[in-house]
Design brief:
This protein has 116 residues and is mostly helical. It has a domain of 77 residues: Orthogonal Bundle (DNA polymerase, domain 1), CATH 1.10.150.130. The protein contains four helices and two strands, in the order ααααββ. The protein has a two-stranded antiparallel ribbon.
Length: 116
C-alpha cells in the first residue's frame, strides 16, 4: 500500500467515513491514477478536470460520477490540502435585505456566490 493511500484511509477513518465509503473513494482515486499512469499527487487541477469531464462524456451513471468526484475531492482537499475551485463546494446563497422603514415591504433578492 502506498503512503498516500494509507494516509487517505487514515484521514477517512478520522473523518468517520464508513468502510464501504472508504472503499468507493479509494477505488475512485485508483481509477484516476490508472487513467494517467501516475500518482494522483503528481496530477494538476486541469488533469483531474479533464478526467471528470471524460467520465461525463462517456455517460457514466450519475451515482458513479458523484462518488468519483467526492472521492477525488476528499483526496485533494482533505488529504493533500489543495484548495482547487474545481472540487470546492460552490453554493449559491440567497440573502434577503429588507427595505428601510417607510418603503415598500418587498425584499430585494441578491444572489451571492460563497466566497473562498
Amino acid at each position: 500500500m502506498s503512503p498516500l493511500r494509507a494516509r487517505m484511509i487514515e484521514d477517512m477513518t478520522l473523518a468517520g467515513l464508513a468502510v464501504g465509503t472508504q472503499k468507493i473513494y479509494t477505488q475512485a482515486v485508483y481509477r484516476l491514477a490508472k487513467h494517467y499512469r501516475r500518482s494522483p499527487d503528481q496530477l494538476g487541477e486541469e488533469e483531474v478536470r479533464a478526467y471528470l469531464l471524460g467520465l461525463r462524456q462517456r455517460g457514466v451513471a450519475r451515482g458513479t460520477f458523484q462518488t468519483s468526484q467526492y472521492g477525488l475531492r476528499f483526496l485533494y482537499h482533505h488529504t493533500l490540502g489543495h484548495a482547487w475551485g474545481l472540487l470546492g463546494e460552490k453554493r449559491i446563497l440567497l440573502t434577503y435585505f429588507p427595505q428601510p422603514s417607510g418603503h415598500d415591504t418587498n425584499h430585494e433578492r441578491m444572489d451571492l456566490a460563497k466566497a473562498r
